[in-house]
Amino acid sequence: MSSNTCQSAYCNQGWSEVLTHMSPYGYANFGIAFGLGLSVVGAAWGIWLTGSSLVGAAVKAPRIRSKNLISVIFCEATAIYGVIMAIILANKVKKPEEALSTLSEDWDWAGYYYAGYGMFSSGLSVGLTNIASGVSVGIAGSSCAIGDAQDASLFVKILIVEIFASALGIFGIIVGIIQSNSCTFPVTAI
Amino acid sequence: MATPAPKSTPGNMANFNILHGFPEALVRGMRSSFLADADYHHLTQCETLDDVRLNLSETDYGDALADMNTLIPTGLQKAAVEKLVVEFQYLRTQAVEPLSTFLDFITYEYMIENVMLLLKGTLSGRDINELIAQCHPLGMFKESTMRSIPTFESSPRGYQDLYQTVLVDTPVGPYFSLFLQESAGRGEVSNVLEEVEIEIIKSSLIKYWIEDFGTFVDSLGGATAEIMGDLLKVRADTNAINITLNSFGTPLNEPAMRASDRKRLYPALGHLYPAGTSMLGDVSDEDELGRVLDLFPQYSSIWNVHAAGGSDGKSIDDAFYERDVMQLELAFEGQMHYGAFYAYVKLKEQEIRNLVWISECILQQQKEEIHKFVPVFSFNAPWRAGSKKQGR
């Protein structure tokens, strides 16, 4: 092992060094990207699950077609959670007052890294919960359309199931906001 | 066996709808076209066939019967079957692999029946045009294929020629070739009546079809394998029991043929296979059959209907139909599997049987017999909760 270790000053000494050398600004922006992107994946997944069943079931029972758009809107809400989170996070990324190639020694390094990791994790929290929520709403919505076509009294009942599935995404966004609350990028040296 | 394994699976809850969401929702939407309890109630109250037509014009059958001046049971059946075929073909055009292969599998059964109908018809010297008109439209081949089937003589040599020149290109060709291989292996069986021979061919082809379908459904996996696999198992068992029951009093029940021929006709699939079918192979009369079925709780109750001698006017076929309807209705309870497509076709067939029965009873003034049918998706069904007949 030791014989293979690179002795140059420019070498990485392990994963911890690789990770700490990635810019916290990069972490923060990836957090935004994952939060928004995964939420949209979840919403899109739910919409086609619901949509394909909706058009099929509407052939024999055309009355369901506008009512069941509510299921599609529930899926769409998942994407909106991602957008809200992305806007909150994007407002927290602040560039330093002086543009320097290196940061000074008395820069608030702890707060700097804390903000980067915090925003990355908060974006992932929102994104992953929203995928689960979107797929869940989509499956319930697909069954809702098929059930409603047979028996109109089922619609409201399955809608409640969908609301609970949709609530999964809200859990994610609540925790995401709390996680990112204390993340503030330092703009000047202490 | 004959059909290669599917290249893709139907998918699970999260991705089934990518390819099959639309056709599945279509077939589930079509579930609303089944006649309801109220419709059956009105139909059974009818005095004449014109009343029947009037009642049906308000149901999903309205368009199919619109240009029919006088309603007769056979005409009603033809129109209803044609309606089912149009719906099925619509579903088939919307389907992509592997659902399209699955739907084709449903039609193979009718193809086998048509081939056998043509062969049997020519044996009794009937007109080819008349026979073709009787064929089930779901199992049609090309016109030229249909016309050339009855030209072959009914002997092992003739079947060989029939396979090589006509059936080799059709989807049921592989089953026929399997049958030929097997009958070549068992050698020349003498003094079998031609009509028994035809029944043996038919049962063998259906057996190969069920086994092939079963393998295909198994390779699809997931909820499809679970639900459709069970439907096919029950189907295979029903066939095995019926083959045994129908063989009593025919050469097939002779001790020599029991082992060599009848045993071969039992599908290698189902709840009875292998322990039950091997016992069925030695059965020589109804009492022994009853003793074997006693070991299988799901069939002993059906057998008891038969053993009771139809005291409440029910035959074993009615008992099987009733059980089938219950099973097929269950296929509609789950989502994101293919079983619903098979169940739809089979339940529609049951509904057509009901309509024909009701109209025949009215035509022949047999009103006391009119309630002997098995309604589909009925709230009064004995297996439904809240029904008055519960705990039967």
Automatic annotation (TrEMBL), chain A:
It is a multi-pass membrane protein. It comes from the Eukaryota. Residues 30-89, 121-178 form the V-ATPase proteolipid subunit C-like domain. It is found in: Membrane. Keywords: Hydrogen ion transport, Ion transport, Membrane, Transmembrane, Transmembrane helix, Transport. One of its GO terms (cellular component) is membrane. InterPro entries: ATPase_proteolipid_c-like_dom, ATPase_proteolipid_csu, F/V-ATP_Csub_sf. One of its GO terms (biological process) is proton transmembrane transport. The chain crosses the membrane at residues 25-48, 69-91, 154-178. Belongs to the V-ATPase proteolipid subunit family. This is V-ATPase proteolipid subunit C-like domain-containing protein. It comes from Stephanodiscus triporus. The lineage of its organism: Eukaryota, Sar, Stramenopiles, Ochrophyta, Bacillariophyta.
From TrEMBL, chain B:
InterPro entries: ATPase_csu/dsu_sf, ATPase_V0-cplx_csu/dsu, ATPase_V0-cplx_dsu, V-type_ATPase_csu/dsu, V-type_ATPase_csu/dsu_dom_3. Pfam families: vATP-synt_AC39. Keywords: Hydrogen ion transport, Ion transport, Transport. The keyword Ion transport applies. The keyword Transport applies. GO terms for biological process: proton transmembrane transport. PANTHER family: VACUOLAR ATP SYNTHASE SUBUNIT AC39. V-ATPase is a heteromultimeric enzyme made up of two complexes: the ATP-hydrolytic V1 complex and the proton translocation V0 complex. Belongs to the V-ATPase V0D/AC39 subunit family. Subunit of the V0 complex of vacuolar(H+)-ATPase (V-ATPase), a multisubunit enzyme composed of a peripheral complex (V1) that hydrolyzes ATP and a membrane integral complex (V0) that translocates protons. V-ATPase is responsible for acidifying and maintaining the pH of intracellular compartments and in some cell types, is targeted to the plasma membrane, where it is responsible for acidifying the extracellular environment. This is V-type proton ATPase subunit. It comes from Stephanodiscus triporus. The lineage of its organism: Eukaryota, Sar, Stramenopiles, Ochrophyta, Bacillariophyta.
